[in-house]
Amino acid sequence: MATVTNWIDHLSAEEVAGAVYPGVGTEGVLVIVGLVIWIGWHVLTNNTESKELEQLARKRHSANDHKSNITEW
């Protein structure tokens, strides 16, 4: 295993060219992809929960239906 004694010389070498970790330069793309996934997740979750709440609202449960052990309350 090679040891580095001078980081300035190491990072300015042609083999390294300033890259200290893999994927240098992809941070912006990864942030955009993460935002798209995050917003998409919220849209899908909102649509699913809205459908479930609409189904429950159509059933029109009364205040005492939970006492009768009605499923899908």
Write the layout of secondary structure elements.
Layout: H1 7-11, H2 27-59
Mean pLDDT: 80
Number of helices: 2
Total count of strands: 0
Distance between the termini: 63 Å
Q: Decide which structural class fits the backbone.
A: mainly alpha
- What is the makeup of the main sheet? none
Which segments are poorly predicted (pLDDT under 50) over 5 or more consecutive residues?
none
Q: Can you write the helix and strand succession as a string? A: HH
Radius of gyration: 28 Å
Strand content: under 5%
User: What's the helical proportion of residues?
Assistant: 40-55%
* Shape label: rod-shaped
Question: Short summary of the structure?
Answer:
The protein is mainly alpha-helical and 73 residues long.
How does this structure look, described?
It contains two helices and no strands. It is mainly alpha-helical. It has a domain at 26-59. The longest helix is centred in the middle third of the chain and has 33 residues, at 27-59. The chain is rod-shaped and about 75 Å long. 0% of the residues are buried. The model has no long low-confidence stretch (mean pLDDT 80).
Question: Could you name the key traits of this structure?
Answer:
0% strand; rod-shaped; mainly alpha
